[in-house]
Amino acid sequence: MVLSFLFLSGTILLILQTTLLHALPEWFGRPNLLFLFIVFLGTYLDIYKGAVLALLFGLIMDIFSGVFLGLHPVIYLVLFFVLQVVSRHLAINESIHQIPLVALSYLFTASSIFVFTSILSPESRLYWAWGNEILQVLILAVICIPFFNFFHWLTTVFDSRNSNNPFRRHKTGNRYRMQ
Amino acid sequence: MRKKNKRARQIRLFLFFGLLLTLFIILIVSTVGRQEFNAPHKLALEIIGTAQYGMTRVTGSFKNGWRNYTALINVRAENARLREELQKHKAVNNEYREAVATNVRLAKLLEMKETLPSPTLTAEIIGMDPSQWFKTIIIDRGSSDGVQAGMPAVTVEGVVGQVTNTSPHFAKILLATDPNSALDALVQETRVQGIVKGGGAGFHMEYVLKNNEVAKGDKIVTSGIGGVFPKGVPIGTVSKVEKSGRGMFQEIEIEPAADFSQLEYLIIVMKKDPLAK
Hints:
By secondary structure, chain A is mainly alpha-helical. Chain A has helices at residues 2-18, 33-44, 47-64, 71-89, 95-120, 130-163. Chain B is of the alpha+beta class. In chain B, the strands form two sheets. Chain B has a six-stranded antiparallel β-barrel. A six-stranded antiparallel beta barrel of chain B has the order 6-7-8-11-10-9. Chain B starts with a helix and ends in an 8-residue tail after the last strand. Chain B has three domains: 1-33; 41-69 and 120-272, Beta Barrel (Thrombin, subunit H); 74-115.
């Protein structure tokens, strides 16, 4: 259930990003909300659920961005697994640590897209625009803490409501013995 | 117990690297192979495209309201200017009519075959590429309207891009400013040919020899070679020419004719047999 809720949230973020946020002036910057959501999934969800969602969002991103089918699923999954490893070994649940984590993750994703595209299409000239990248990193760094807190709160509310659902079958503590 | 844990960890690691390897293979296969959308891609585009369409409608109505309000401020002065322009254009139009009539008469005399231009279809942009690296858009017309991969997209100002993928009601367009886009072009005045490639905000023209005459301000149009774009569609104006670099070709930068930052509607040229790639 949480999986479908998160999938719906990510899809709404993608729709907002491809429509509403493009109305913002270019100098103001347009936050990459779906990327931030992938980072959230990497730090919040367990490996199996998170990997499924990262893969799905990667496949959807391929439809709306770029020309290489398969580029986004690979990059999002690699990012997700890297975040899983990092979140197990570092105390990144502390809010202040999430800012450098988001910045580094963004630079990792951007450079992966740059490298993959350069390899897959060597005849096309891809430009690494530091100005745009730094602006995006700054925007993500500013909004990441409220964004993570909001989705954390939302999933907690959703989880608690879901656990109070009288129609939901409650699992017994012992999964191996029939009672 | 410890052995079991170790084995479980090994299986997890194996699964993890197996998954990664599979995905890399998928990436390579899908990249080397066809880049066309399959059924799930089309279904996802249909569902999310509908939501994008709705969102564009809502934001569009707000935008229009604001524009109408701001336009009212200068409406009287603009009205007078437009009336004056209309008088001028009426006079020019009469001259053109005369020229067309002469042209038709001369064409009949020469028994030339009439070449009808391809029909066109107007489409609204409902979604823009969310990444900074690629320049693609989603439009509200799809294969049910007759749109096919390979069809050129233009505006009244000039070239916009080319349809790459379609679903029944929506289509994806690769903008000419995307680094993966390439167009056969020529300099309108000197007829020098080259390839125009996307460069993010503008274009650059490649494979133009240094001994060819290209100057700042020259108009660049499509050459019609390759059969994707009709001949003579404006691409842009030369903004910089660099001959001092190494190699046998010039470095030419082009200012696009179409304003890509203000795109809202575009025209799809409905060619009968569009070249897909």
